[in-house]
Design goal:
Radius of gyration of chain A: 23 Å
CATH architecture of chain B: Alpha-Beta Barrel
Structural class of chain A: alpha+beta
Distance between the termini of chain A: 57 Å
Order of helices and strands of chain B: EEEEHHEEHEHEEHHEH
Largest sheet of chain B: 8 strands, mixed
CATH superfamily of chain B: Aldolase class I
Strand content of chain B: 15-25%
Structural class of chain B: alpha/beta
CATH class of chain B: Alpha Beta
CATH topology of chain B: TIM Barrel
Largest sheet of chain A: 6 strands, mixed
Helix content of chain A: 25-40%
Distance between the termini of chain B: 22 Å
Number of domains of chain B: 1
Shape of chain A: globular
Number of helices of chain B: 7
Strand order of the largest sheet of chain B: 2-1-8-7-6-5-4-3
Number of strands of chain A: 21
Oligomer: heterodimer
CATH superfamily of the largest domain in chain A: Sulfite Reductase Hemoprotein, domain 1
Helix content of chain B: 25-40%
CATH topology of the largest domain in chain A: Sulfite Reductase Hemoprotein, domain 1
Largest interface: A-B, 45 and 43 residues
Radius of gyration of chain B: 17 Å
Number of domains of chain A: 4
Number of strands of chain B: 10
CATH class of the largest domain in chain A: Alpha Beta
Chain lengths: ~550, ~190
């Protein structure tokens, strides 16, 4: 796992001190709230409905057990005993006092953590494939390039006051687990015809009120040119991105208004000037970062384990968990175990301090002390011996986190919604909880099969409902919370934005509507057909008919 | 308003004009892009140093051919959140090799000074309270830099060309205990 060098340590220490003095200046009224706002945002500090919220960066979703234990301590000491994992692999604390924040940053620094660039109109904390380094389908370890991007973008002097926020995601595997095309820039490592690896670069994607799937602006970018090309994209955006209207300020609008080809041409023009300059990445530098991500020392094992086979046979719930929550590891005899943070009736992404402590202990005992955070608001133990899976599952069961529902109907992604957020129109959490209770039966969920369901409390779409198979959007209709349903969104490589199915439902009706949708699918599916495949074949009509039949 | 340059608060000797008909002949003159375009021939005969003010939507690309006439370019920040001029400054330094003064004017915050400087600004028009509030300290609050920018860029292009491996090695993770000093040397 990557560890800080002197430069990182020095930066964090100085940054903590700097922010402490900024908070002091705000408390003394030397800084107005307007002037303080961009400074606190660049340190991940928001002012929410009820309190300050701090978003802590977890670069590319990689955590050590010691870091997770520290997150537990902070939840216990400064918050109400829990934290909330986000769709961008970060963690948020929702109930903080401004005066405590400098102390929290000091505590985070003790375990090489911080909140830099988790908010504000700058290059945000970079995200990557949560299974990078262990997934059987990967070409290279995406974290290596995410780390290179992290270093380059940290306190970037030119790009700290962009027209709007800027999110970069990296994937280097066959399957997309990061919602590539929903990003301002997405980098997909692939192999070209002559066997070299480089990046497909996509730009101008995003959710929000104008959902756009990022078009490809370059098919193949050599690794050595990664940073100079990114700098060229950002320089074009910083100069030409719209600053007259906050809703049109994201790069997606610039790319749309300019046209993807014309935008790409502008980038190429700037890139040609700088590509052989100081940002050129020699192979030796990439190799140095690669060494930081060297795999742990695995045991030499057979891929099939007789103990696991016996455990699977005796416990059907464990067998279901293995089926849905354990992915194929590149190392024989190991599995990748997803810890679902979606227990029946739970709040998606919320973890208590006690649960964090326990997960850290499990990771130490069974998984090289490593934890990942996923875009689906779950945690992952990236390397567990197959023979240990049952023991891990039993321990997770003790803290109510053994649900075998990863990738299934109750693996719901939800934003904090009106319970916390001052942008929201409606609550997301109670809807997620009700759906999670209604569909908690695991046998039924496994029968329904692969599906994504996301709930956003407003059109900013933090829960990425546009690209969910079933998307639920909270809207305000004459002062009452209503929920609009979209169907057919996907972010699995066949990316699509969902289509609104019809008039919105009340909070009371929405779980019944989802039930109706699922029943139409179960009635009409053909052998082995997933929900999204059935929608592709059937279209929306059969769903509309049942949903609005009475009206 | 005082001018902050090389860690000192100094008087601004430049003269900004609204109309060009009664210009003191012996004073450095700061003109807008519009004035420069209208009076280019007359101004290029001006014997005292000439400076150019660019608004937040006026890229230096617009005057690339004329930069040799100016010893100062002032880039304006009508609002501190508008970051376009950070790119303009780097373009001036790194693309065009401009070696005169690059000045930040308008609404800039103490906490932006170090970033502005890294992009190639070397003079800052600051509010009167800047001296008593210790704005000079803002330049050294963060001593670590993680990416090349105008402050690590050598304007001696020949030297860069001859030592490409050295400049290239700077792409990642630069510790700047030495470059902090170098920054002041502009």
């Amino acid at each position: 796992m990557y560890h800080y060098n002197n430069a990182d340590h020095q930066l964090i220490a100085e940054r903590v001190e700097q922010f402490g003095s900024q908070v002091q200046r705000r408390l003394n009224n030397e800084l107005s709230e307007e002037e303080f706002k961009p400074l606190r945002l660049m340190n991940g500090l928001y002012l929410q409905l009820h309190a300050y919220m701090l978003r802590v960066a977890i670069p590319y979703g990689t955590l050590s057990s010691d870091q997770l234990r520290k997150l537990a301590v902070i939840a216990q000491r400064y918050d109400r005993g829990y934290g909330h994992f986000t769709t961008r692999q970060n963690i948020q604390y929702n109930w903080l006092e401004l005066e405590d924040v400098p102390d929290i940053l000091v505590e985070l620094a003790e375990v090489e953590m911080h909140a830099i660039q988790t908010s504000g109109n700058c290059i945000r904390n970079v995200t990557a494939d949560p299974l990078a380094g262990v997934a059987a389908d990967e070409i290279e370890d995406a974290r290596v390039f995410a780390e290179i991007v992290r270093q380059w973008s940290t306190l970037h002097p030119e790009f700290s006051f962009l027209p709007r926020k800027f999110k970069i995601a990296v994937s280097a595997a066959e399957n997309d687990r990061v919602l590539l095309r929903s990003h301002d820039i997405a980098l997909r490592l692939h192999r070209n015809d002559v066997g070299e690896t480089g990046f497909e670069v996509m730009a101008g994607g995003g959710q929000g009120r104008t959902p756009v799937l990022a078009p490809t602006i370059r098919e193949f970018l050599p690794q050595a040119d990664l940073l100079s090309y990114l700098e060229a994209v950002l320089r074009v955006y910083n100069q030409l991105g719209r600053r007259d209207n906050i809703y049109k300020a994201r790069i997606k609008i610039l790319v749309m208004e300019t046209g993807a080809e014309a935008f790409a041409a502008k980038v190429e023009e700037e890139w040609a000037r700088i590509k052989d300059g100081a940002l050129f990445l020699p192979e030796a530098d990439i190799a140095r970062i690669k060494a930081d991500f060297a795999p742990p020392i695995y045991d030499d094992l057979d891929d099939t384990d007789p103990a696991l086979a016996a455990d699977l046979a005796k416990n059907p719930n464990f067998a279901r968990w293995v089926r849905s929550n354990v992915d194929t590891h590149k190392q024989p005899g190991y599995g990748i175990a997803t810890i679902s943070l979606k227990p029946p009736g739970g709040i998606p992404g919320d973890v208590t301090a006690e649960q964090m402590e326990k997960i850290a202990a499990i990771a130490d005992h069974f998984g090289f002390g490593e934890i990942r955070v996923t875009q689906k608001q779950n945690l992952v133990l990236p390397s567990v011996r197959k023979r240990d899976l049952y023991a891990v599952w039993l321990e997770l069961d003790e803290i109510d986190l053994a649900a075998g529902n990863a990738g299934l109907l109750t693996d719901i992604v939800a934003c904090p919604g009106l319970d916390y957020c001052n942008l929201a129109n409606a609550r997301s959490i109670p809807i997620a909880q009700r759906l999670s209770e209604r569909f908690h039966d695991l046998e039924e969920q496994h029968d329904i099969g692969e599906i994504t369901l996301n709930i956003s409390g407003c059109i900013n779409a933090c829960a990425q409902h546009h690209t969910a198979n079933i998307g639920i959007l909270g809207v305000d209709k004459k002062g009452t919370e209503h929920y609009q349903i979209t169907l057919g969104g996907r972010a699995d490589g066949g990316d699509a934005i969902g289509t609104i199915i019809g008039p919105a439902f009340t909070a009371k009706e929405v779980d019944g509507a989802v039930d109706t949708i699922i029943n139409v699918y179960l009635d009409q599916r053909q052998d082995g057909e997933t929900f999204i495949a059935a929608i592709g074949r059937l279209g929306l009509e059969p769903f509309k008919e049942k949903l609005y039949a009475a009206a | 308003m005082p001018l902050l340059k090389n860690g000192q608060f100094i008087d601004d000797l430049w003269f900004e004009v609204e109309a060009l008909d009664h210009v003191p002949a012996d004073t450095p003159l700061l003109v807008s892009l519009e004035q420069w375009r209208q009076h280019r021939d007359a101004l290029s005969q001006h014997v005292v140093p000439l400076g150019l003010r660019l608004a937040n939507d006026q890229s230096p690309e617009l005057v690339a051919e004329d930069l040799r006439h100016f010893t100062l370019i002032a880039l304006d920040f009508p609002k501190f959140t508008d970051g376009r001029s950070y790119s303009y400054a780097r373009i001036l330094r790194e693309r065009y090799g401009f070696e005169g003064e690059v000045r930040a004017t308008g609404n800039i915050l103490r906490d932006q000074l170090a970033l502005l400087q890294r992009c190639g600004f070397d003079a800052f028009v600051v509010p009167d309270r800047a001296e008593s509030e210790g704005w000079v300290a803002a330049f050294t609050e963060i001593s670590v830099i993680f990416q090349p920018a105008a402050d690590t860029y050598s304007s001696r292009r020949e030297a860069v060309r001859q030592r490409p491996e050295r400049t290239r090695a700077r792409a990642l993770r630069i510790i700047s205990s030495d470059t902090v000093a170098a920054r002041w040397a502009y």
